[in-house]
Each structure stands twice: as structure tokens, then as C-alpha cells.
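ok here's the first one, seq then C-alpha cells
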Amino acid sequence: MINKAFTIVCDKVNAVLEPQGYKKNKVNNSDKNEMVALFTGENVAYSVIYYVDKMHMVMRSCAMTEDGPDNEWKTMATWMFNPETDSEKEAGSIGNDFADAVSTPVNIKRVKQTKKKKSNDEGSADPVFLYKRLVKFFPELKAEIKEEEDSYYPFRAVTFCKEHVVPKINYMLALGVKADITKLMGILSAQYVNGDPDTRAIITIVILNSVDEKYLEIIEPLMSDDLLKAYKPALKLKGKKVKPEKVKKVVTSTGTRL
């Protein structure tokens, strides 16, 4: 049943993507726990994955490079599909939802703009990209990012940062290893320049404003001029609540979000 269901979902996605110039690729996957379909376009790649153990059907996207997908996958939607109790009807519903996700005007506009160069004051890297860059310091973030991607859509960037990133950064500062702190501030400075507006706000308003004041004299000299210039005004927001994200629960085949 799961093979038929997976085919139904992928066919519905392909029916929407093919007219947009996407190509369905053959995927050689030795992982018996995953069923994978890959659709590639000029700027963006989409992937449909079924995780056998979790019984999750997932729709993801990432940017395309000259060598293929950059594999910085972002979860767009997740459904529960139990092959023992669900039918082709549920598979069709999942396929329709995935097809809608890749055919909305907002998504099509995003696809067209993915590889366009931004102006000097606007980057394109999102908060998840920032968090993945921090995995080199905090390896446990890798699993925490995946858990967040599998559980919520869209990714709760502010909530995730407060719960998983800020405590780790404060602990690093408390340890006081200058080499690690210097590298960390280098990444935050670079991602402030390369990041989109959400990423910039995460860095200044959420991360840096959560740093204990006793560490400011350590980190401020390590910030780039651009980051330091943005951070000073952001201090006025310190202690104020950041508006939480509006989150869609992840839908199961019975109509309940995971």
C-alpha cells in the first residue's frame, strides 16, 4: 500500500511542477527507512520523503546550485500516513496539499527570486541556515533542528532560538574560551550581512540581546562594523517581548497536525 500511496502523492506534485519546468529525477537511496522523490528546477529543488519508522510523509525544498541541490532542506509540510489504516483517499489528500504548497503565488515568486543577487543591504540566508552554521559549535543542534522541522511549519525561528540557541551561547560565553567566542562572533557577523531580515532580527534582538551584560565588553570588539552598528539600536528592545510566530500544526491523514 505504501508504494502506491507514495506514487499517488508524487504524481500530484509532479503534475504541478512539470509545467513549471521541473524534472523528476531518479534517486538511488540505500536507506530502507526512506522513500524519496526528487524534483529539480533551475533555482529550486523539491523532495517528497516518506519515513517508514515515523510514518511521516514530508515535502521539502532547497536551493539549486551548479552541482545540484544544496541540501539545505526546509520542511514545507508533514503528514502522518499509516499504510495499515490509511487508504488511497488519504494519499490523495496529502498529494493535493503538497501540490498546493508548491503552486501558490507566494512560493512561485520565491522560487523565481532564489538565485537573484540581493542588493548590498539585503541577504538571503534564513534563520535555519544560521542555526546549521552553529552546529559546528553545538553538535546537538543538528538533532534539535530536525525535530523542529519535523514538528512545525513554518519553522519557529524565534522560539527555537530562545529555547535551543541562546542557552548554548550563554554557556559558551561563561566558559570564556576566547578562540571559540571569536569564531562565534565571526559567524554571527557574517550571517548578519548574508541573512534575510528575519535572520538579522534573530541575531540582534534575540541572540545578542539575551547576552548577559557582563560579557558585552568581550563580544562587542569582536563584532563586524555592520553588526555593531545594528546592535546598538537593538539594545533599546532588550527585555521586550518578541512577537511569537503563527504556527501551523503538521497535518496527519486524519486531519490532525503533528
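and now the second one, same deal
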Amino acid sequence: MAGNAAIPRIIGIDLTRSVAIFFAMLSHVWVVTNMDNFWSGPSADFLRALMALATPTFILLFGTMLEIVYRPRFVAGEQGRVAVRLFSRAIQCWLLYCVSVVVLYLVADGYSLKFSVATMMLLGVTPFTDILKFYAVVLFLAPILLWLRNRVGLLPLVVAALVVHAAHPVIRGLPSPLDFNMGMYAERVVTFLFGVGDAKLGGPSILHGTSLIIAGMAFGRLIAGDRTAGAAKQTVGIVTRASYLLAASVAVLALGILFYDEKSLAELGDMSLRMDSDPLYFGAGLSGAIALTSLAVLLTQGLSPETKQRLEKPVFFGRTSLFTFAFGNMILYGWPATPAAFGSAVFQAVLISITITALSYLFDREVRRGGALAFIVKWLQAKITSFVNAVFVLGTPRAKQA
């Protein structure tokens, strides 16, 4: 019989997710306002590297949620329900990605009807929303990852993730579709899946991103222990675990700072290392993400239940991450002005940030209040879930009659 044990929430993870989505939108605002033209040097490089933590943090937390929320249900016999939930989420990501492509088709140069349709089919590229394409794929792969986690254990998965990065020179040296005159669409697909080739995609690839998801699963196991039903009671609390993880990640970051150079810092922020699937990007991103999440857990774990409940309102970015990322970037796609001076760039950056924040807050408030918007959102989600369930039924062999 499937288990239904409640999974206690860790508010620090919700807080970190909100910070990550905020950093992601700030990095996109930086690009739209041409801030690089007005602010450069080590301070700007450091700020961009800090904002670049958004992607590895978000992917790490996805793996963490797989481990501490979905795996206990998966082990308890709810594999079908878990798969339906993940597949439904994948379709939501893909639909929002398609909507963002429609906006690009309407407002951006270079997005012909043919290229826009190809982009919806995951063959193209978008300026900011390709991470939705990434999540659409990894959410479909997540049940397989959970199955492997239970079948072979976590350690072999971690070793496999490390091998991917150890093999970076080999992977980057492999011939790509363009070497066989197969065209740019094929090049983008192979780069998106494996990090092979020179297609200018935001990344990370599915292969390299999955290594971060596995790291997130390991992080979830380390910080929260085994949350499956029947697991031995944890003798070490979350605060102690978070303290150790924070100390270890800060030590790694401190070691990196001792040997860093300005070129590497700049490349961490301008996506050069990310597009190259460089191990330095993943090492720095993973360490920063663990440090940020562990610190948030330490700051919030000892709070009273009443304080935690009050804290849930300001962390609306975490609850509206899909909405914020999709519609926030649509605002950026249609933003008309191009600043010509530093003051104008700062003003527009603040104005866009306030607009996106207000939009996300209002969306979260309306959904929590259960009004018409909440009804529409839940209706759409229910339709998607019904579709996935129908596909599951069609794909499940009927029991033979006695």
C-alpha cells in the first residue's frame, strides 16, 4: 500500500529558491539594460558571478527536492503518482517555453515562423528562457533518475557525475554534427543534450545539468538524512548538518579565491565557462549553491513555527518561479528602451526589477486567495494532469481477465 507520510518542509530551501530566481532575473535585466557598457572591472565581474549562481543553485535544489520530497513517495509505492506529477510539471515548463517563443516571434528580429516553430520543438534557442527547455526534459527524465537512485544507490550516481566532468576534454573534443555537414539544428540538439559542439546555447547541457541534479540529491541526503518510511531516526540534526556543509563549501570557495584570476571571475559571470561546460563553472557553482542554501537553512531552521509561517509570504519568488521566469522574461523581450548612459541604465534596471517583482507578488497573492486567477491556473494544471494520466492509462497494459 502506498505510504502517505507527511514530508516536513525546510523553509531555508524555499528561501534559497526565491533568492536564486531573483538573481536569475537580475542577470537578465543586466543584459537588457546593456549594463556592461557602463560598469566593468572586478566589482562588476564579482556581481555578475554572484548572479550567475542562480542556475546551479536552482538545479541543485531540484535534485534536493527529488531526494527529500519525491523519493520517499517513490519508495513508498507511489511511483505512478510521482511520475504523473513530474511529467505534468514538464509539460507546464514546455508550454511556458512555447509562449515565450511566441512573444519573441512577435517582438524580436530573427524569429521567423519556421525558426519559432523549430525552437518550440527544442531545435532553436532563446535569449533567456532556454532553462525552461532544460527543465522540460529533465523533469521527464526525473522518474528514471529516481529509479536508478533506488536501484544502484546514490554513490554510483555521484561517481558517474564526477566522471562526466573529468571527461570534459574528451567530450569537448568529440566531432559535432557540423563536422559532418548536418546543419545547425542538429548541432544545437547535440550541444543541448551532451555539451558537444559549438552551438551558442545558454546551457548547461542535459548531461552536465544532470550531474548537478545528482549533486542536489546528495546534498539533500546529507542535509536532511534519509526521509523514507522506516529509515532509522537521524542522530544528527539539520542545523549540525548544515553547519558542516556550510563550512566545507566556504573552505572550497576560499581556496578558489586564493588561486582565482580576473579572467576566470569574468568568465564565470559572462556565461563563457557555462557554455563551454567547464568543470570550473560547475565546481564554483556547486560550492556557492551549497554555501547559500546551508546558510539559509541555518538562519531559518531555529525559527518558531509562527515566524516561519510569516516568512512564507516574502519568499513568493520560490512559489512563483515558473511564472516569474516565463512572464518576467517576456517583459524583458518586449522592453522598448535602450539606455544610453549609466544613470538611465540603473533607472531602467530598477524599474524592470520592480515591475517583475510586483507582477510575481500579485500573481502569488491572487493564487493564495483562491480567486478567478487561481481557478484558471488550477484548471489548466488539472487538464495537463488529466492528459498525463490518460497517456499513462493508454500505456499501461490491461490486466488479463480471469
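notes on #2: The CA atoms of residues 52 and 324 lie 17 Å apart. Residues 1-5 have pLDDT under 50 and may be disordered.
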